[in-house]
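pasting for the record
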Amino acid sequence: MTGAPSSVLQVALLALFVLPGVVYQLVRDRWSGPVPGERSLGEKVLRAVLASVVLDAVYAAVAGPWLVEFARGGEGAGWAGGIAERPRLAGVLALVLLVAVPALVAAGTARWSRRREPVGLDPAPGAWDHMFRTHGSCFVRLRLRDGTWIGGWFGGNSYAAAYPQEPELFLERAWRMGADGTPLRRIESSLGLYVRIADVDVVELMSTTVREADR
């Protein structure tokens, strides 16, 4: 049975044209972080499409005839007949071509880029993300725009919003602060402190401000 591509083949072609680039983009961002000029969705989509086109072209040049023969299956099976006849092999090919190869290419590209950079690349897209990714539990004090100091303990139950969300901070323990920013004592009844960074002009992480027993 021959004729127009079946719905199964259409789904397979859609995955082939979309997934390699999406996987490449996700893994590359994970290893290298977003690059300047890629903060908009359009830029990310364009890079993903370009990666898919390049990878698909390589697949076609290396194994194009075999992939077409596999997809068509035996004589009279029609388009996508091979996929239906050998679903396990089709699944393995999908994992290799749509996930494994793009991920390896992205990881290799990121590693090569890091070696070329004299100071290296930080996967954090901004100073806010870098600050909380590279430090563990610590005391955080913040000065509001009106000059008031607030602070608290940033630990395992705390949270710092990451890019692309707006910077926000949840401290699991609030502290009473002096007028000069000196931590005075923990507020015993505190169940946490939420801070909108748009209201803050100074954020400082401190490692030796409070004793272990005072956390």
